[in-house]
Structure formats: structure tokens, C-alpha cells
């Protein structure tokens, strides 16, 4: 039995069948029709997605409920936890807020009560203290009277009254202190006489203050209370009767009947800034005999102004008296001040107060006084506990952090779940894409069983994780269970191989290789989905597909035929489109297909990287059908052909004219397959009968050779190919030029005037011999530290259009030579681009810009240098006549005279391309290439230096280059300054880069070398056939190639490696050069014979004309 992983060593070389001619090679214009029950290819993607093949269906949903249920549980737990945390945060925050607020309220109440009581206590204390002071003072008056013989109250004058009362006045903070003796109303006249006589004795000097007592005034119980002695003096005047005041008269009974202290508050708003309180203390000679009254007048503020500590908030104190109005005061840590008269109607704290009677001694006072203390908002503000907000905020922050942490954790869990689910999805997608549905079901069943076993034998783990891990194919344990395999008796297998791919890929970057394969195989996969074809796998550039499994279908051969035809059509269109992106020779790629029908053993071969595989002789035979086929052809076996004939598709078959000898199979009769359109089928149905009885007749039909490409069609094809090459070159140059413009902008380069640049352009264009401009050293700009360059910047549209026009015009200057043509110039450009990419991105880690500059001799630091080299590769063979310089010299060509028999073709290419670039219609393009005179001169120098380096036959130039190499890289020449040494090496690297690219075909895959070797032979042979040379090139072509390899190609490849800047490309080029040299030595003579045969067929008629 033979696996699909077949041995391809016995398959022919890619080109072995490509060059053959077959009527079935052209599939242009094929219109695929759909019969009943089939899916048309022009059906929309949305419709086609409903008819995808089994391998493209979504994975079975058996695991979805498990995954979804676990996800739902986790999600519910997350929501519940989040809600609990949220409500906990809110509840605890409210609780903390209420508790701290209540604590603040308690603190406020306690502080208010303490401060309110302090105000009252201080006031009461002041009352007692002032009362005691006045009593003491009154007692001193009684003592004085007793000591003085002959004097009796009221006729007593206290000497030095102001001195005697000074201490009491200061201690009580009284504004006025007066002595008022009680004078009987019957003694009014006597008192006036006494007071007038003793006025001076009183020590009071202002005699104008004395007035006689009004004996007709108000008396109480037959007594007057004249104000006799007082301090300080005021305009109250002597002898003003205390009882004339209504409030004193009404309260006189309190002390006349035995009271000790009376307080009276008076307030005249027009005369007093604030209410005054009078202390009235009776002075008695005995318990029954009253001598007089001591009166002290003071402000209420002084009674409680110092009650609160500094910084304490404000309190309101309301003083009320039954005999007078109410008054309120503001008290704080700085003192007290009068607020207003009357009740505090707008007080928000009416229900919160501290009150107490003050100034009352005894129970018979008719006008008791009361003090009521209220808090204010200012006082409350001190106890608006910010800690409440702080603690609540702290709790909320803690819970917020917890919630955030939980959300982060939940996101991590979700991310992990998503990752696991994605792993399952991806694994499922992979399983779905490489395994048939019935095989998928078996795999999932095994996975579930493994989950159960793991759950029973080990710690519980996530079902999702188990399902994901169960798909892993990297097992270290022995297989258990029955292998997943089945026999499918009716199948058709297709092998599709890209012809020329190996050679093509040898000239490309790895990314380009994968770009091609991804484009092609993704299109094949799409077609497979539509046609219900099962894609098995891709092996290298070989695509393997099968019909008839996993679900049997009677039309498996017809379905595979349609699929093969669709894929070939799609392939041919793709390679034409990809030329612009992937470069020359892409459109030359072809596909070769083979089909065979028969039984197949299919299943999953378990182990590392297990895959669904096919086994059996049918697989082996299909591989032979593909490998023995031809490019752009679908070869089918007789077994497949019989099935197609039975399905009335015999008109699709054309017998192969020769017999295929397959390894292990012997001779095989095969057919070429071409799926006709509906109209073609209608015509063909009259020629080819359906049914198995006509199969033999079909086998015996001769091969009809058609002329697929007429001369006119060939011209159109060549024009399209040239246009694609032009577009590719424009794209490459535009990308490089965009970097030039972006770097110039980033470095802030100021452009020179257009006049000065135009003057230099004219000087460079007038009668100059390019060879004389070749320098020993090309000076590149020094490293200056690059700023950030905008990699996304694009060229202006005018520059793009002019660049496209320039490349198109330049392509027109190339002659239709077999070798030196525009296609070869594009091939050289592609090699230059590849080598420059290796310079720009060397395989060295941790390179900074400065180090990279030094490592590459400054080439990476100057985009203009890179652009110049790429452009030089494109122009280096412009207008090449297909004749070597030596022959032009022999023929005394006019060009040889112009260029003094030196580098004729190369100098002509430089001048032609330069003159074209100087045309007025490329003004914007030139401004993009160079903006200063120094850039213009460097650009010109680089183009000349690089293009002339392609003249490898001039011995003088070659000797100079070898000398430069020795000077730059030999250890014997180390005395050169560093800048010149770096520039010399850069010059040599650029010269060797273009030289290697010019002969890159010799250092690439054997088929690439064969292709261009034949073209060069044809070009040289054409010169011989025209009679321009006498020597047949075939006579020494073999030996000449050996010498070319030994003395130029291999040494050049070694120098690329010695430069040390081309990375792995230098090894690649050297290895291919050595392999091609060995292959040429083995097969070169037969190759020369083949070349000669082709040359005679192409140009033999020219030789006969000369003969």
C-alpha cells in the first residue's frame, strides 16, 4: 500500500514536461456549466457557503452545550459575586456613613452641652464674683460710717471714693460704679443742702454736674435713691434719682424687703450700642436698716465673653428678663458681641438649647433673668465630621479596589476561557478541515472518554481545558482503543503539482514563496468547498484532494474532473495577476494534475502530528498520473476515464498519443481531460458517443494538434507579459523612491534652487564619456543619526505617473534579443532587490542604526544609493544590440567610435537612460530623486559606476576592480583613512552586487540557469547564423561555461560571502553556483546539443541564406 506521503524522487523534473506541446494545454475561455444537482462556480459566496464540502463544515456541536453550560455557570457566578460586592459596598458604606454621622452628632451634642454650660457657669460665677465685690465695697462704706462720729447715713460722704472703688471697678469690668444713699422724702431739702455743701469734699471737680435732687420725683416707700458718688464721672449728674427709672422702681421691693442682689437690664437703642445690665446691691447697717444701694453698670458681653476656648465655633446666647425685652448675643472663642433685640425667630436649633436662671439670689425677685444658649451652623460645622466622609470613602475605595480586582480577575478568567474556547475552536476548525465528519465524531467521542477517565483518575479540572487538551496530538502515552480507519471502495484522487515552482522559489524571498502558495491554495480550498471535494493536505507545492469519501457519491469522478478544471483555470489567472507583486517568471508557472479512481483506505494515523491520510494502490497510481503528466494538462487513468464515459462525459477525454510507463505499473493508457462548456459539449456529443461500449473507440482516436497561439495572439501575450513586468518594476522603484523622499523629509534637507540643479543637469548631459566618470571611490554620506521616518508616506501622483511612463519608455528601448532583453533586465532587478534586502536586514541581532551603518559600509543609511542601484539594474542593457562589445569593435560600429572602443553597450545604456530621464516630462520625477546638487552628483556617479561594472569582459576595468578589492579587503593595506576605506568597500560591494545580479541565473536553481543559458546561446548563435562571427558557439560552449564558473562565477560568489553584508544570500549563491557547475559538468554536453537543436530550428534559415 502507498500513503499519500509519497516518495517524489521518481517524479520528473519540473521542466521535463513543460516544454512539450499538447493540444490540451490551453484552457482559456472554458465556461463551466452546472448540471442538475451540481453547484455552479459563479454562485455567490453566500450561497456556496451553504454547500461546502464535508471538510469545510463547522465542527460537530456535541461539545457546545458542555462549553456553553460551563461558561454560563462561570458567568452567573461572576454576576452574583459582582452584585454581592456591589451591595456589600453600598450597605457597608451607608452603615459607616450613618455610624460616623451619628458619632459626629453625639460629639456635637456633647460639645454643645459642655460649651453651653460653660457659658452659663461662667456667667453665674461672674454674677457671684461681682456681687461679692460690691458687698465688700458696701461693707467698707458701713465701716467708714461707724468710725466717723457725728455722721450718719445718708449724710455721709466717702472720702477718696474713686480710689476706694478703683479695684472693684476694674475687677468687675463695670462701666459705672455708683453709691446711692436712701434719703427719706421728708428730708429732700436737707439732702440738697448737704449735697451742695459737701460736693467739693467728694473730690469731684466738675461742679456743673451737680443738680439738686428732684424732691417731687418718684420715691419708693417714702425714699429717694440719689446718685451721690460714682466713678467714672458722666453726664448722669449728681442727685439723679435711681427710682425715677421705672424698671428700678418696679423692682425696688426686691432689695427693700431683704433681697441681696438685683440685676436690671436696660437698653436705649438710640443711646446705647448694646444693652446694659445694672447690679444693685443693698448696703445695710443692720438686717433691718438699709443705708443705700451700690449700683454697678456693665455689659452682658463681659459676663460670658471669655467662656469659650479660642477656635470654638459660635453660640447664640439669649438673655430674657420678665421685666424687660429679650436680647441675644453671639459668643465664640474670640469673645461676645451683641446680636439683636427680641426672639430668635429663625433659629434652626430652637429644639437644642441649654438654659438657666442667672443673677437671682432669693426667691422673691419680681424680675428673674434667664440665659438660654443655642448652637449655630458655625459651631455645627466644627463637628460636621469629615471622618464620616473619609471613612465612607475609604470603605468605598476598598470595595472599589476589590470590585476592580474582581473584574480584572473575571476578565482574566474570561480571557482564559476565551483562549481555551479559541483553542477548542481552532482545534475543531483544524479537525474539521483535515478530517471527514464521521472521523471528527470519533475523535470527539475519544476526547469525551478521555475527559471522563481524567476526571475519575485524577484531580478535577475544567471541562473546557480537558476538551482542548484532549485534541493535542503530542502524546507520550500508548494508544488506546481501535484505530480510526475505513475502506472506501469508490473514490477519485487528485494530485496537483506546480511546474517550475522549485526553480522559481530559488530566486525569491521566503515571504514571496508563501505569498504565492497561500494565494493559490486558498483559491483551491474555496473551489473544494463549492464542489464538495475533500482536501487531504498539501505536500510542498503538491495539492491532494479526494472525492467519494467520507460520504460515498456516485459522481465522484465527474465532481473531481470539474474541480480539477476549475483549479487549473483559477491557477492560470492567478499567476498572471501575481506578476506585479512577485516579479518576473511568475506567469511562467504552470500546474500539472493527475487523477485516478479506485478503492482507498483512509483514516487517522495516530501519533505525533496525526493527520487524516490515504493509503492504497489508488494513491500510488494517482501520483504516477501527476508525475508523468504535462504542464497545463490534467492526466487521468483509464479507470477514471471509464467512469466519466459512463456518466456521459466521454467528450471531455482525449487519449494520450503515447503510452505512459509508470514505475511499478508498467505501460498505462491514459487520457487528457478537458471539461467543455455547454456549447462545446453539445457539439462534442455528436462526435463521441456515451456509454462504456465507445471507450475503446475513444482510446483509438488520434491526437488532434491545434495551433493554440497564432502570431497575433503571441504578440498580445508578449505585450501583456511586458506590461506586467513594467508594473512590477514601477512598484519596486516607487517603494524605493518613497523611502528616499521620506528620509529627505525626516532629515530636514533643504532643496537647492531649480536653476542651479538644471545647470548641473546640463553639464552632466553634454558630450560626456561615462567611462571617464568612473571613480576609485564613490563617496556615500556619513552617518548623522536618523530621525523617525514615515514608512507609510507615498509618492505624489504626478511622480508615480511619470515613473510609470519612464519605465514604459525605457522598456521600449530594449531590443527583442533572446537574452539581453527587458525580461532579463527585470530578472537582474529582482536579484538586486533581493540582495539589497539582505543588506538592509542582516542576520545580526541587536543592531543599532550606527552599527548597521558601519556594518554595511553606509549603504543602508542612504536610500538614494539603494534606488540608484535598482534603477541601474533596470537600465544596464537598454538598447543592447545582442552583440558583444568585441564584435562591435571588429565591425567598426559608430557606437564603438563614440565610446572609444570601451564598454560600448554599457555606456550607450547609461547615456540613453540619462537623456530620457532629463526629458521635460519627467521634471517631478527628477525632483523626487534628487533635491540638491550633491544628491544629483551622487545619483549620477552611482548610476555610472554600477552600470559600467556590468562590463566584465574589459580586462582593464576588471584589473582595476580586482585591485580595489585587494586594497579594501586585504590585510596588507591598512594605512588608508577610515572614511576612504569605508567608501571604497561600499563601492566594491555595489559593483559586485550588480555583477552577481547580472549573472544571477548561474547562481540560482538549475532550471533557471538552463533557461537563461539557452537564451544566451540562442543570442550568440543568431550572431553566428547572421554571418557576423565565424565560429560556431556550440564548439566550445561546454568548455567555456566550465571556465566561466571556475574563473568568474564561483570567485564572485565567494567575494559576496567575503563582503560579509549579504547574510544567507551569499551562502545560497555560492551553493547554487557549485551545484550548477557540477550539474553542467555532468549534463552540459547534452544541454549544448539541445541548445543547438533549438538554435538551428530558430535561426537555421539565416545560415542557409548566407550560404
Shape: elongated
User: What percentage of residues falls in helices of 4 or more residues?
Assistant: 40-55%
In terms of DSSP E residues, the strand content is 5-15%
Terminus-to-terminus distance: 62 Å
**Mean pLDDT, as a whole number?**
79
Number of strands: 22
Structural class: alpha+beta
CA radius of gyration: 59 Å
Query: How would a textbook summarize the main sheet?
Result: 8 strands, mixed
Low-confidence stretches: 1-63, 460-478, 678-710, 841-847
Count, helices: 35
Blueprint of the fold:
Blueprint: H1 15-18, H2 45-48, H3 64-147, H4 161-172, E1 176-181, E2 183-184, H5 188-197, E3 223-224, E4 229-231, H6 246-256, E5 262-266, E6 276-284, E7 290-299, H7 301-304, E8 315-321, E9 324-332, E10 335-341, E11 354-358, E12 369-375, H8 377-381, H9 386-434, H10 437-457, H11 463-470, E13 485-499, H12 501-505, H13 510-531, E14 534-539, E15 542-547, H14 556-577, H15 579-582, E16 590-605, E17 611-615, H16 617-627, E18 633-637, H17 638-646, E19 653-655, E20 660-662, E21 666-668, E22 670-673, H18 678-684, H19 695-699, H20 711-746, H21 754-765, H22 797-813, H23 822-840, H24 849-855, H25 863-875, H26 885-890, H27 894-898, H28 904-917, H29 923-929, H30 933-948, H31 955-969, H32 978-998, H33 1006-1025, H34 1037-1059, H35 1064-1106
Parallel strand pairs: 16-18
Antiparallel strand pairs: 1-4, 1-7, 2-3, 5-6, 6-7, 8-9, 8-12, 9-10, 11-12, 13-15, 13-16, 14-15, 16-17, 18-22, 19-22, 20-21
